[in-house]
Amino acid sequence: MTQNSTTIDSSSMSRQAAADKIARILDAQFFRALCEPVRIEIILVLIRKGRSDVGAIAEELPQDRSVISRHLQVLERGGIVCASQEGRHVFYELDASASVQRFEAILGQLRALLPLCCPAKPR
Amino acid sequence: MTQNSTTIDSSSMSRQAAADKIARILDAQFFRALCEPVRIEIILVLIRKGRSDVGAIAEELPQDRSVISRHLQVLERGGIVCASQEGRHVFYELDASASVQRFEAILGQLRALLPLCCPAKPR
DNA sequence: TGTATATGTGCACATTCATGCACGCGTCAA
DNA sequence: TTGACGCGTGCATGAATGTGCACATATACA
């Protein structure tokens, strides 16, 4: 039972277009990388210690080193961190620039929804 | 093996402060609501159809109505949608305003990380 | 060349979570 | 008051995923 389901909503076209744009940007893969508490902890470690290799990151966390390695792969696929190999070590670094661009794109499309999707604000 | 681990990094204090601020904002609960493809579909339905009740949303998706109901609860706890009961119906609506504020807060803290956490940009 | 170190991966296990069905509760209509 | 409708929840099941151990690979050092 949708409001105005029987009448032709003048904003239906823009709603559909907005939905299409949001669908392209709201990547579940990206958010999945951020929904795991341990991965959040890894991000915090990278902020505190800066560019570090797998062993150094794992030292700061209770999980096994192999687990941290896997989480770092997920973060890399999500575009949150970037890896660079130097000899035996693989250094990981927070890619704040890419994340900022990602969030800016989402925020831009989200602002376009404000006139369409804002609930009544009893403030 | 962290870079500059032996020397006192002049930005270590600001790094710690930045990590603390990020830790408060990067809520896994919020991202968990967005990492499920079905919940993304629900968001798209709410954009297309606007404020709708559970049954109307479930009509647009293959999952059972009870499943949609549970997903909507997760979205509500994450602050993505807001619910309002009217008689037998419970209407859900995308809270774009709250989401925009959420993303703006994250983006603000993320921009503060740019001078600290940017990888070398070979562009 | 041989050894130690750093990392990733296969495997098994435990936990979390999405899913659908059945049922109970609350509300509206007759 | 009785029946129909909308919604949420308990329960069981299967899939996805986090976790740790053992092992293989690659690289640096003596």
Automatic annotation (TrEMBL), chains A, B:
Keyword line: DNA-binding, Transcription, Transcription regulation
Keyword DNA-binding in annotation: yes
UniProt-listed Gene3D superfamilies: Winged helix-like DNA-binding domain superfamily/Winged helix DNA-binding domain (1.10.10.10)
Signal peptide: none
All residue ranges annotated as the HTH arsR-type domain in the record: 19-114
Domain of life: Bacteria
InterPro entries, alphabetized: ArsR-like_HTH, HTH_ArsR_DNA-bd_dom, HTH_MetalResp_TranReg, WH-like_DNA-bd_sf, WH_DNA-bd_sf
GO molecular function, one term: DNA-binding transcription factor activity
Pfam families: HTH_20 (PF12840)
Protein name from the UniProt record: ArsR family transcriptional regulator
Source organism (scientific name): Rhizobium anhuiense
